[in-house]
Specification:
Blueprint (H helix, E strand, L loop, with lengths): L15 H14 L8 E2 L1 H8 L3 H13 L3 E4 L3 E4 L4 H25 L2 H20 L2 H18 L3 H9 L1 H14 L3 H16 L3 H26 L1
Antiparallel strand pairs: 1-3, 2-3
Helix pairs in contact: 1-3, 4-6, 4-9, 4-10, 5-6, 5-9, 6-8, 8-10, 9-10
Length: about 220
């Protein structure tokens, strides 16, 4: 259980409950804590060198984010990755990404465009090295930059509320992607459409990008069942 969780660094300036929360959330998102796995407060507290109280608080907060499920008289479990959840999340994300890309093509600034192209290059480099952690980081940066470049605060806020659920699926997606060059090309194509100011094409490419992700992740989850 939670093989990569370690003792908390008390030199961190964040409150203890937030440090515990961040550690457990990352373990869930990265798949170190598996869907359906029971979360044992005592074991986590011992492993991380803390009392049970901040662990309990962190688990409750994870429940609010949809990453943990509380079962009456049984305890807390890592929320399952269901096909229904996947479809629901990615249907919303497809629409949001499409709109964000359309708006970014019209509103992006020169320095943002330069950063977007640089992130796309770094993503390709991590893909060549098969560095999943790097891929996840750059994929997040790529799409967040597009959202910020949309200049629509409401859109950014809505996307932020889905961030953790999307991130869980993103890990599955990037671990199981069978055609790395195609993924790099999708990012580059979106980037180019934004650069040329073709809002309609940027939106269409972003939507197809999410549809492609959905197909891959559905196949992955069905394989695990």
């Amino acid at each position: 259980m939670a093989g990569k969780l370690s003792k908390v660094n008390f030199n961190d300036y964040k409150p203890l409950r937030e440090i515990i929360f961040d550690s457990l959330r990352e373990a869930i998102i990265m798949g170190e804590l598996k869907p359906g796995e029971r979360l044992m407060e005592i074991q986590f507290a011992e492993k991380m060198g803390v009392s049970r109280t901040p662990v309990r608080e962190a688990i409750r907060k994870l429940e609010l984010e949809g990453l943990v499920t509380m079962v009456p008289r049984k305890g807390a479990y890592v929320a399952e990755l269901s096909l229904k959840d996947l479809v629901d999340v990615l249907e919303v994300r497809g629409a949001l990404d499409s709109l964000a890309s359309e708006l970014a093509a019209q509103r992006i600034k020169k320095d943002e465009l330069r950063d977007l192209k640089n992130i796309a290059r770094q993503f390709a480099q991590y893909m060549e090295k098969n560095n999943v952690q790097g891929l996840i980081k750059k994929d997040v940066e790529f799409h967040e930059l597009i959202y910020n470049a949309s200049r629509n605060e409401k859109l950014v806020h809505i996307a932020r509320n889905l961030k953790e659920q999307i991130h869980r699926f993103r890990v599955v997606y990037l671990k199981d992607y069978s055609s790395p060059k195609e993924l790099v090309k999708e990012h580059n194509d979106i980037c180019q459409a934004i650069e040329t100011g073709d809002a309609k094409l940027a939106g269409e490419l972003a939507y197809e990008h999410v549809k492609h992700q959905k197909r891959i992740m559905i196949n992955s989850l069905r394989t695990e069942v």
